[in-house]
From TrEMBL:
<dbReference type="Pfam" id="PF00615">
    <property type="entry name" value="RGS"/>
</dbReference>
<dbReference type="GO" id="GO:0007186">
    <property type="term" value="P:G protein-coupled receptor signaling pathway"/>
</dbReference>
<dbReference type="GO" id="GO:0005634">
    <property type="term" value="C:nucleus"/>
</dbReference>
<protein>
    <submittedName>
        <fullName>Regulator of G-protein signaling 17 isoform X3</fullName>
    </submittedName>
</protein>
<keyword id="KW-0963">Cytoplasm</keyword>
<dbReference type="InterPro" id="IPR016137">
    <property type="entry name" value="RGS"/>
</dbReference>
<keyword id="KW-0472">Membrane</keyword>
<dbReference type="InterPro" id="IPR044926">
    <property type="entry name" value="RGS_subdomain_2"/>
</dbReference>
<dbReference type="GO" id="GO:0009968">
    <property type="term" value="P:negative regulation of signal transduction"/>
</dbReference>
<dbReference type="GO" id="GO:0016020">
    <property type="term" value="C:membrane"/>
</dbReference>
<feature type="region of interest" description="Disordered">
    <location>
        <begin position="1"/>
        <end position="40"/>
    </location>
</feature>
<keyword id="KW-0832">Ubl conjugation</keyword>
<keyword id="KW-0325">Glycoprotein</keyword>
<dbReference type="InterPro" id="IPR036305">
    <property type="entry name" value="RGS_sf"/>
</dbReference>
<keyword id="KW-0539">Nucleus</keyword>
<dbReference type="GO" id="GO:0005737">
    <property type="term" value="C:cytoplasm"/>
</dbReference>
<feature type="domain" description="RGS">
    <location>
        <begin position="110"/>
        <end position="226"/>
    </location>
</feature>
């Protein structure tokens, strides 16, 4: 005899049985696939969590993009230095007088005070070299030099040199800039001025301030200057 499929309402006591997980129910039969509806319900109940998880991942990845890119460039630069450029001559530091203990201590008060001091810039640049990010300081200094130029042909020459050394993606000393700033630079390079790289210089300054400066203050390079200066003062 062929079984008759019941499609009417489920009695209350039978519904209670189903809620307690009792065996294969009429609900499975109603799906027409032997439990398909139950599976669909379970899958639907899991979807919000999956979507939430994906959204959180995307948000986190987006927030870390700039910093991760900087880290990748440092690793590539570290590899190039260890393999190809060990004999490369390091550009000379800025001419400056020996800083006093008071000056050295002022560098920890603000990044601006460090960057205004030639000796401070030299020490910070030495620290950046240990992190394979010296090009940030070199780029900033090159922009400062360009701002002082008044001869048009010299401005064009220096602007082209800065672009090739620090902006071009083919340069081993390329600095980390976002797409908007790069687009601005490409427009301005059609007619360079002393302020062609102003936006880029500010972005790199901010990067050094937020990313490198806190580590510099905790570095052995800075601590040795503080301790060495204090020791000299006490001996005198």
């Amino acid at each position: 005899m062929t079984d008759i499929l019941y499609t009417g309402p489920i009695p209350a006591e039978r519904g209670g049985e189903l809620a307690m997980g009792g065996g294969r129910s009429e609900t499975s039969a109603l799906s027409g696939t032997g439990g398909g509806r139950g599976m669909t319900t379970t899958q639907n109940s899991q979807r919000p969590n999956a979507c939430c998880f994906c959204w959180c991942c995307c948000c986190s990845c987006s927030c870390l993009t700039v910093r991760n890119e900087e880290e990748r460039r440092r690793r590539r630069r570290r590899k190039r230095i260890s393999q190809d450029t060990k004999m490369e001559t390091i550009p000379n530091c800025e001419a400056c007088t020996k800083p006093s203990v008071e000056e050295i201590r002022l560098w920890s008060q603000s990044f601006d005070k460090l960057m205004r001091n030639p000796a401070g810039r030299n020490v910070f640049r030495e620290f950046l070299r240990t992190e394979y990010s010296e090009e940030n300081m070199l780029f900033w200094l090159a922009c400062e030099d360009l701002k002082q130029e008044i001869n048009k042909s010299a401005i064009e020459e220096k602007a082209r040199s800065i672009y090739e050394d620090y902006i071009s993606i083919l340069s081993p000393k390329e600095v980390s800039l976002d797409a908007r700033v790069r687009e601005v630079i490409n427009r301005k390079m059609q007619d360079p001025t002393p302020h062609t790289f102003e936006d880029a210089q500010l972005q790199i300054y901010t990067l050094m301030h937020r990313d490198s400066y806190p580590r510099f203050l905790s570095s052995n390079i800075y601590k040795s200057l503080i301790h060495g200066g204090s020791r000299t003062s006490s001996e005198s």
